[in-house]
Amino acid sequence: MLNDQGRPTAPVRNGDDSDTRGTFTGNRALAQEEALIFEIGRVGTTGVDIEEPTAFAPRLGGLARQDGIGLPGLSEPEAVRHYVRLSQQNYGIDTGLFPLGSCTMKHNPRLNEALARLPGFADIHPLQPLSTVQGALALFDELSRWLRELTGAEAIALPPKAGAHGEFCGMAAIKAAIAARGEAATRTVVLVPDSAHGTNPATAALLGFSVRPVPARADGTVDAAAVAAALGPDVAAIMLTNPNTCGLFERDVRAIAHAVHEAGAFFYCDGANFNAIMGKVRPMDLGVDAMHLNLHKTFSTPHGGGGPGAGPVALSGRLAAFAPLPYLKQDGETFTLVEDEASAREAGAAPLGRLTAFHGQAGVFVRALAFMLSHGADGLRQASEDAVLNANYIRASLGNLMSVAFDRPTMHEVLFDDAWLKGTGVTTLDFAKALIDEGYHPMTVYFPLVVHGAMLVEPTESESKASLDLFIATLRDLAHSALAGETERFTGAPHYAPRSRLDETRAARQPVLRWAPPP
Amino acid sequence: MTDIRYTKDHEYIRIDDGAVATVGISDHAQSALGDVVFVELPEIGRVLKAGEEAAVVESVKAASEIFAPASGKVVAINTALEENPAIVNEDPFGNGWFFKIELADAGELAQLLDEAAYTDYIRDLA
């Protein structure tokens, strides 16, 4: 159960002294250093003119705060500069190619943003009377229709706010369905292939299931026979990602689904990699019962520093009745929301409960539907085809230099291992860090765990051939350098970033999670 | 020669005296894991079956389960690892031990790899 972790990290100063002697301000030309807001803000300063409250009788009793809370205050230009400077230190898909495997870092078309800013979407509140937000609800319904069409699902649960939340929703629906059959006490195991995203076993565990791993075959895919052997009357579901985290299509998926259903269990598919098959395969046709869709991956909405994402869940006919509250209902021309369990049960549903206060990430829904409508059915299909083509172009262009983990055409991402680095003194981590010096965000490293020293590259369909060619040329130059024994380019990398190699070990062992004023 | 045995998952088990044995991870394991940042140990008194998940070791990049190499009852845990998990990297066979178990059946150890077999095994992995 061990994987290679690369070089133990240690803090490395950037370059020699002449490089770090620095300037009077600490800035380097127009690259600005920026202090924490607590260090530059002043208590009592504010950017807005608020009237002093007149005397009032607090009703908090003994709970009233005695002292100020010490929030830093900034003038408006100071606040703007602070956040703009921080944003300039960030690297995003708007900065450059972002090959982070398994994350589908595709371009968010500006048309999405224009539509999401329309006041009818941007300036509404979830507690407004429903009669005043019919347009937004109609958009939710249209989004749901597109997602049903793409997946073959019976119902779409819109509330989940991210992929892992979607997994939780789908697995909770499966748990509810099993409980409804009276098998809650006996079906307590979830099968998870060992190439799965870490969120899969975590989701199963959070819902009270125990996890039974299914080993991968030598070719990186899941063996239907191994699944069949792991199945039994105690199994509630399998959680499978297709294409899987090695970027390979699970060819036995129908046989696996058949075996899972024969054994009375459900098939959860992790939709993280839907960008490879959008418009090509309807997952429900493969026997899937539930699958989340990462709108922030496949449908181009921003990942936004961990949020806001959205992870609606496609549910098959066997699970549709268990969809969470609230859900949309259409009466003639009017949309309403079914908000409470009693009304849902009256209508014959058996909702698993409520996952969010409101109905999901409305702004993300607008962007995702804008992406779908602007591409059309044929455009979505082509987006997937181009994503797969781009990944295979990278594989074909680097496969004679770096070692591909599985020597066969890949889906939307391509997986390399570190066999080609053997004996060079350069690890996967060093190689990834050197890519930062070249101005690229690194690929995903050391995942999936089933491959030694993994490097997982996902270019998405957003990149032009010129962009891919430059990226490939960069990787080839780095690879030649590593193979030629130029280890200093790698072991201390990044050399040119504002901060060099960070001490990840110390950060994990002695985390400082709360800022305190210097003594 | 010390009586030390290994699993293919890179745990070691070493008989201390009679029925009590010490469990940890091999030098190869700590090296492959990289800097260990967290160790979760079993509770004293817990009865483990061979192959059962007994502890968790987390390094900078990943968390791995530690499986009981043999059946028995946990009689001691190395609480020093909770404060300073780096000992696992520094001294895996000494101060970096994980827990001690009272063996249910010392005969189980015969099924594990001895020093020579384990050395061959990790050479083949490399």
What does this structure look like?
The complex is a heterodimer of chains A (519) and B (126). Chain A is of the alpha/beta class and 519 residues long. Chain A folds into two domains: 259 residues, Type I PLP-dependent aspartate aminotransferase-like (Major domain) (Aspartate Aminotransferase, domain 2); 123 residues, Aspartate Aminotransferase, domain 1 (Alpha-Beta Complex). Chain A has 17 helices and twelve strands. In chain A, helix 4 packs antiparallel against helix 13, helix 9 packs parallel to helix 10 and helix 13 packs across helix 15. The relative contact order of chain B is 0.25. Chain B has a single domain, classed as Beta Barrel (OB fold (Dihydrolipoamide Acetyltransferase, E2P)), CATH 2.40.50.100. Chain B starts with a strand and ends with a helix. Chain B contains four helices and nine strands, in the order βββαβββββααβα. Chain B has 126 residues and is α+β, with helices and mostly antiparallel strands. The interface between A and B is medium-sized, with 15 and 19 residues.
SSE inventory with pairings:
The complex is a heterodimer of chains A (519) and B (126).
Chain A: H1 17-20, H2 37-40, H3 76-88, H4 110-116, H5 119-122, H6 134-151, E1 155-157, H7 163-180, E2 189-193, H8 199-206, E3 210-214, H9 224-230, E4 235-241, H10 253-262, E5 266-270, E6 290-292, H11 295-298, E7 313-315, E8 327-331, E9 334-338, H12 341-346, H13 362-398, E10 414-416, H14 428-437, E11 444-445, E12 455-457, H15 465-483, H16 488-491, H17 504-509
Parallel strand pairs in A: 2-3, 2-4, 4-5, 5-6
Antiparallel strand pairs in A: 1-7, 6-7, 8-9, 10-12, 11-12
Chain B: E1 4-6, E2 11-17, E3 20-25, H1 27-33, E4 36-40, E5 47-48, E6 53-59, E7 63-67, E8 72-77, H2 80-83, H3 86-90, E9 99-103, H4 115-125
Antiparallel strand pairs in B: 1-2, 2-3, 3-9, 4-6, 5-8, 6-7, 8-9
